[in-house]
Design goal:
The complex is a heterodimer of chains A (437) and B (517). Chain A has 2 domains: 220 residues, PmbA/TldD superfamily (PmbA/TldD fold), CATH 3.30.2290; 213 residues, no CATH class. Helix content of chain A is 24%, strand content 37%. Chain A contains 10 helices and 17 strands. In chain A, helix 4 runs parallel beside helix 5. Chain A is globular, with a radius of gyration of 24 Å. By secondary structure, chain B is of the alpha+beta class. Chain B has 2 domains: 264 residues, PmbA/TldD fold (2-Layer Sandwich), CATH 3.30.2290; 232 residues, no CATH class. In chain B, a hairpin with a 5-residue loop joins strand 16 and strand 17. In chain B, helix 2 packs parallel to helix 3 and helix 4 crosses helix 5. The longest helix of chain B has 16 residues. In chain B, 64% of the residues are buried. Classes of the chains: A alpha+beta (437), B alpha+beta (517). At the A-B interface, strand 2, strand 3, helix 2, strand 4 and strand 12 of A face strand 2, strand 3, strand 4, helix 3 and helix 4 of B. Chain A: It comes from Nannocystis punicea.
């Protein structure tokens, strides 16, 4: 048994001894290293190994959850004892039960390829060399004032155990680079462009210099940015920007938001809410996926779950607690990887098809109301003129309702963004309200 | 109420995170053997504070010596213990509670503008020495002069004195307050369908040792009470929330405050049933007194953090001494507002705090400095070096940002607008430092037509450009107040609690998200 799993079991035992009927403990250890390089030299090096324990307690029909990084044995025992005592003064909650052990069954065994052993072996020299490559590339234009390059990586191990028979362990690695270039424009303006790549494995990532080149290009693309007109037109959303837009649209799929009356998707199961082109599956079993897993935080065995099929809402994220409140069987309480059904053209071809509209490259601020689906977002991007990417625009908003927007989803690209657990392709929406001049 | 995760975002936090620390128990708070809850009090001897972390002065000297063994212009050890508690009432039941303890030490070495950083939660000498060697890796010289003696430095004032530290307040004392607030909210309107109340309190003990032999300690309390509502009228559902937050104690939650909070949450929710989107495009925006300080935070505050200017990446990098706004505009960032989330007794580098004037009667006056930028610009640090926790190295951050009163009244400001909006409550904002483009999201507001408030509006984003928005401040009211709700500022992956305020202010033109039907 791993030392972490042993520690988790010990914590569960401490909780039982203190009077809890049930307990669930998870413990993790993470190492992270980050090197930041700016304008020809190392600016910051951070390195650490961190660990912590989380524990959920079920005491006389009452519930609480706790976490600590102070794992000295006497302090930990005192902490758990106090936590159990605290739980006793809360009110009994008939819906709160430890996850059903039946949900632990059928745990998949497929190799998720979560760990790249070469990540832990990266040397300081290698990290610095890659940052220097990015820095040189990012400075390859005389308009650049400053460039920051970052190489980050980490490895983690974890284990969880429960009083009703769950135990599980996991591990993972990640590595990525990021680059931001700032260019001068006129007297005071200093537009910037950023790019990054991240994955569980080193192989498959683009060359560091390619990321820096993209950051530089994005900064240069901002030069001369101006406010566009207030208009209703077609919106093409870049895959990278589509990630957060889709995530916003899907966040009210949780049983908690539905039970609390804070979801515009409440009561829509089996109904067509979005356009035909929208199909999204939650897939925890993708090899090397950033959110791949064999079980979720409640120990529920992982399986693929359709969320949206051709615009129809198929499943919600249902955890044990809110599932019981709603009278629904648990599915999984949290998202893993989200994969979209793809079209057959990439961004450039879709822009050519659109002829006229606005191409959104990134969002700036904004928010949405999960209860009504109303949203309003700041944006940056370009005009689309005659099927080509035109002048840069900024200082504009797009405003509407998420259900109405995705009902007008006209085309989906074939170019999913690879550096997120939500693999969004280019999206094309018709008749979208923009605010500008 | 979503938290934006992108860099330099700014969000009203919707969860209970980030609270920390608690305060002064006078002489009551010495460490009790075997207790995990009672941190040493404000006036406890330094030995008690050191003892809490199981360290002593010779240990600190030993670790500091290792940390500076390859040279250092500056170096510090940042010990932190924080304990947070939260309680939630939902569907009529006080159904869950949580607590968390976070403890560790961050070790930093600065050489010029280069930083080496490491932290450990394991406070054994062996683990701290290993972390010190890692952080020291940034340096390549001979050993710096490390202090042999460490001495505690006093500070003049306490900006967050509590009559009772949070660790002494029992959970059972909090429950009736939570139930009372929920009951007040529920009877606020017959359409109220769901009431959620979230209570959070915490305290934090910080001990900073620097390479000059100084030790600073601070005990920082924090609390927040949220009231979240869902209301139903026929087929239409609306939800909204309000919260109270600050570095206060249990007795701050008076009946009056709970009534005020319930009323705010109810009115913010019920008005949504009648609220519409304003027309889209450019128009005058009246920023209501209070939370509208988010404009300052995004439009100018971040751009005045000296690290961005030292790196030459801020739009304000060459504007010190320049006229940027009308004479009646004075903007400050102030650590000395008692009880505010942005209040500090000492910053996270051990520097004394102050009220820093960013814009003095329309002229750009000072950046916000940490030690690194102060040295670069050869000025005194402004006590703005802050960090999320011992896991992070400090950088220049805002504290309580607000505009001083101006010459106008709220009434004359509204009367001056032919067609525009009033922005009243907000969820989040963001800025692009170099381009100067900033945004903030309005949850509640009002339409102004011919100088009169005519209808409620909701859910729109505002976008503008920092220097342009400052130039376009055409009227400033005499009713400055700080927002009562809690704000958390995010920058480069670090979140810190802040405050913001504004008198009623007119910006003559910004781009308003809206719908032209």
């Amino acid at each position: 048994m791993s030392d972490l799993l042993q520690s988790a079991k010990t914590a569960v035992d401490l909780a039982k001894k203190a009077g809890a009927q049930d307990a669930w403990a998870a413990i993790s250890r993470d190492r992270s290293v980050s090197l930041v390089y700016r304008d020809g030299k190392v600016e910051k090096v951070e390195e650490s190994t961190s660990r912590g324990l989380g524990i959920s307690l079920y005491v006389d029909g009452r519930y609480s959850s706790h976490s600590t990084t102070d794992l000295r044995p006497d302090r930990l025992a005192g902490f758990i004892k106090e936590a159990v005592a605290l739980t006793r003064v809360l009110q009994p909650d008939p819906y709160r039960v430890i996850p059903d052990p039946a949900l632990f069954k059928g745990r998949p065994t497929v190799d998720l390829e979560r760990v790249d052993p070469s990540v832990a072996k990266l040397t300081r020299e290698q990290r610095e060399a890659w940052c220097a490559e990015m820095d040189a590339k990012a400075h390859s234009d005389s308009r650049v004032i400053s460039a920051e390059s970052n190489l980050f990586s980490g490895e983690s191990q974890g284990a969880a155990a429960s009083s009703n028979g769950f135990d599980g362990v996991w591990d993972g690695s990640y590595v990525g680079y990021a680059c931001t270039a700032t260019v001068r424009e006129g007297e005071d303006k200093r537009p910037e462009g950023s790019a990054h790549a991240v994955g569980r494995f080193l192989t498959g990532l683009p060359e560091p210099a390619a990321i820096a080149a993209l950051a530089l290009q994005r900064a240069i693309d901002r030069l001369g940015s101006a406010k566009g007109p207030t208009v209703r037109t077609t919106m093409v959303v870049d895959p990278e920007a589509a990630v957060s837009l889709i995530s916003r649209a899907l966040s009210p799929l949780s049983a908690a938001s539905i039970q609390q009356g804070r979801s515009y998707l409440a009561g829509k199961q089996g109904q067509k809410v979005f356009g035909d082109k929208l199909t999204i599956t939650d897939d925890p079993l993708l090899p090397r996926g950033l959110s791949s897993r064999h079980f979720d935080g409640e120990g529920i065995s992982a399986k693929r779950m359709p969320l949206i099929e051709a615009g129809v809402v198929r499943n919600y994220y249902v955890d044990t607690y809110y599932g019981k409140k709603l009278g629904w069987a648990p599915t999984t309480g949290s998202a893993s990887n989200r994969v979209l059904g793809l079209g057959d053209k990439p961004l450039a071809a879709l822009i050519a098809d659109v002829q006229d509209g606005i191409y959104v490259t990134s969002w700036l601020g904004g928010n949405s109301d999960a209860t009504t689906g109303d949203f309003s977002l700041g944006l940056r991007g370009h005009q689309i003129k005659g099927g080509k990417i035109g002048a840069p625009i900024g200082e504009m908003n797009v405003t509407g309702n998420l259900a109405a927007l995705f009902a007008k989803l006209a085309v989906v690209g074939n170019d999913p963004y690879p550096f997120s657990s939500l693999r969004a392709p280019t999206l094309v929406f018709e008749d979208v309200q923009f605010s500008g001049t | 109420m979503q938290q934006t995760l992108s860099r330099r975002s700014f969000a009203a936090i919707s969860t209970l995170g980030l609270g920390l620390p608690g305060l002064l128990g006078g002489c009551r708070g010495t460490t009790k053997a075997g207790s995990t809850t009672m941190i040493p009090g404000e006036n406890a001897p330094l030995a008690d504070h050191l003892g809490w972390f199981s360290v002593d002065k010779p240990t600190i000297a030993r670790v500091m010596s290792e940390l500076t063994a390859r040279g250092a212009d500056a170096a510090d050890l940042y010990f932190q213990y924080s304990r947070d508690n939260s309680i939630t009432m939902e569907d009529g039941i006080i159904s869950r509670a949580s607590s968390s303890i976070d403890q560790g030490v961050g070790l930093r070495v600065v050489v010029g503008d280069q930083t080496g950083y490491a932290f450990t939660e394991d406070l054994s000498l062996e683990a701290m020495l290993a972390a010190a060697r890692t952080a020291a890796g940034i340096a390549h010289g001979g050993a710096a002069h490390a202090p042999v003696e460490f001495k505690q430095r006093s500070r003049p004032t306490n900006f967050y004195t509590l009559s009772q530290p949070w660790a002494e307040v029992q959970t059972v004392q909090k429950l009736p307050r939570i139930e009372h607030l929920a009951a007040l909210a529920r009877k606020g309107d017959p359409s109220i369908h769901k009431v959620t109340v979230s209570w959070a309190d915490g305290e934090e003990l910080v001990l900073i040792a620097d390479m000059h032999g100084n030790i600073h300690t601070d005990i920082r309390p924090m609390t927040r009470l949220w009231c979240m509502l869902t209301a139903k009228k026929g087929e239409v559902t609306q939800s909204n929330s309000a919260n109270l937050a600050g570095r206060h104690g249990f007795d701050w939650y008076t009946d009056d405050r709970l009534e005020f909070l319930a009323k705010e949450a109810v009115s913010r929710t019920m008005v949504l049933f009648d609220a519409k989107r304003p027309p889209a495009g450019e128009m005058p925006v009246v920023l209501a007194a209070g939370a509208s300080g988010i404009l300052l935070h995004e439009a100018i505050g971040h751009g005045m953090e000296a690290d961005f200017n030292r790196k030459n990446t801020s739009i304000y990098a060459s504007m010190i001494g320049k006229k940027v706004a009308p004479d009646f505009v004075t903007i400050v960032d102030d650590a000395t507002q008692s009880g505010e989330r942005g209040a500090l007794n000492v910053d996270d580098e051990g520097n004394p705090v102050e009220k820093t004037v960013l814009v003095d009667h329309g002229v750009m006056a000072s950046y916000l400095h940490d030690s690194i930028s102060a040295k670069h610009y050869k000025v005194k640090a402004t006590g703005s070096g802050r960090r999320e926790s011992f896991r992070h190295s400090p950088m220049p951050r805002m504290r309580s940002t607000y505009m001083e009163n101006g010459p106008h009244t709220r009434e004359e400001i509204i009367a001056s607008v032919k067609k525009g909006i009033i922005a009243e409550t907000f969820t989040n904002g963001q800025v692009q430092i170099g381009a100067g483009d900033f945004t903030f999201y309005i949850k509640n507001g009002w339409l102004i037509e011919d100088g009169k408030i005519t209808a409620p509006i909701k859910d729109i984003n505002i976008i503008g450009n920092g220097p342009e928005a400052l130039r376009n401040v055409t009227m400033v009211g005499n009713d400055c107040k700080l927002d009562f709700g809690g704000w958390t500022c995010g920058k480069d992956g670090q979140s810190v609690p802040v405050s913001q305020g504004l008198p009623t202010t007119l910006v003559s033109k910004m781009t308003v998200g809206g719908e032209n039907v």
